[in-house]
Amino acid sequence: MAPMAGVSNRPFRLLAIKAGAALTYSEMISSEGVVRHHAKTLAMMKFKSDEQPIGIQIYGANPEVMRQVAQIAVRNNNPDLIDINFGCPAKKVVNRNSGAAALKDLVLTDEIVRATVEGAGKTPVTVKIRIGWDDTKPVYEEVGRIVEQAGAKAVTLHARSRGKGFSGKADWTAIKKLKRAVNIPVIGNGDVKTPADAKQMLEETGCDGVMIGRAALGNPFIFKQVSHYLATGELLPEPAVQDKIKIACRHARLIAEEYGEQRGIIKMRGYLGWYVKGFPGASKLRPKLFQVNTISDVIRTFSDYLNEELTTRRSPYPANTERLTTWFQNSCP
User: Fold this and answer.
1) How far is the C-alpha of 54 from the C-alpha of 126, rounded, in Å?
2) Residue 191: helix, strand or coil by DSSP?
3) Is 207 an active-site residue?
4) What is the model's pTM?
């Protein structure tokens, strides 16, 4: 599961790992926020054993600070690995010479990795990169060799340049070239939307693992689908509407437990919009979900949806609102 700012918090990670993700990551964490003892930043580094294996992803432009943060992460949290973000294209990150900006200064890149490895001690350090700052100067092979020599144990390549952001098509040939350029494991990232995509990436590039980000939004099922397809060659059926609703309700409860119901459900609104993608009548349902304030609101909104939309399509679910509510209470613990 890819680390995603504002997304990959504990509830999201827990659903992903239970759905079959081989590894999860924290949200991207500011090294400066950690050394300044920013409470929210420190809270982002926390996790529980039921989310493991997990990596804490950090970013920053100061090697000494990154070394200190690696020490803090290992001492206080003991993650399975520490990942350095050299790929984030966000302006607020690259303007501080962090994230993908490191691809413009490979001397600094080397210094950051060496310092982080030193601070992490026996905990493995990995690195996530992009093809380059822009399409005119791809540096991923050189960066791969640099981070390997600096002590990184694996490298993930999002096969787009910083300039492309998340647009255009990912260049999987770059993943193949990086795999040939280094001796450490390479994880491919970019445009894996289906189990078939994951298999194709592995076969075409020879990479050692596949990282999935946006395709998992509102769809934690994808991890089980990919694992099953790779193991058996069989495609699992797409989850039914009721299965997605069950997971959405479970997600809402988890996020309310993590942040408190008032704050949590407001954060949950965006996730709910992802869960109902492709639902019949989603264009009418989504605005209603963006207004929920409590778990009861979530259940009632989905209950009304099933009553109004699916019962007109010979749905197997009870048309009576009272029975629908009972179904939700039994199905969405």
Assistant:
1) 12
2) coil
3) no
4) 0.90
List, for residues 127-171, the tens digit of each pLDDT value: 999 999 988 889 999 999 999 999 999 999 999 998 888 888 999
Residue 163 has phi, psi (to 5 degrees) of -60, -30
Q: The tokens of 97 are what?
A: 């010479």
Q: What pLDDT, on the 0 to 100 scale, is given for residue 319?
A: 45
pLDDT grade for 189, boundaries at 50, 70 and 90: very high
Average pLDDT (87-93) is: 88
**Chain position carrying tokens 């209950």:** 303
Tokens in use for 331?
Answer: 């199905």
CB-facing half-sphere around the CA of 112: CA atoms within 13 A: 27
CATH number assigned to the domain covering 10-232 = 3.20.20.70
- Collapse the DSSP code of 96 into the 3-class scheme (helix H, G, I; strand E, B; otherwise coil) and give the result: coil
DSSP for residue 219: -
For the chain, the structural domain boundaries read 10-232, 241-331
How many degrees, rounded to 5, is the angle at CA 220 between CA 219 and CA 221? 85
Instruction: Provide long-range contacts, Cβ within 8 A and 24+ apart, for 92-96.
Output: 93/28, 93/59, 94/162, 96/61
Tokens representing 116 are 């982080």
Catalytic residue among 88, 207, 249, 332: 88
Judged on CB neighbours under 10 Å (0-12, 13-18, 19+), 18 is: middle
Token pair, residue 91, equals: 């302006």
Element (H, E) at 210: strand 209-211
* pLDDT average, residue stretch 104-112: 96
* DSSP reduced 3-state for 3: coil
Distance, C-alpha 138 to centroid of its chain: 25
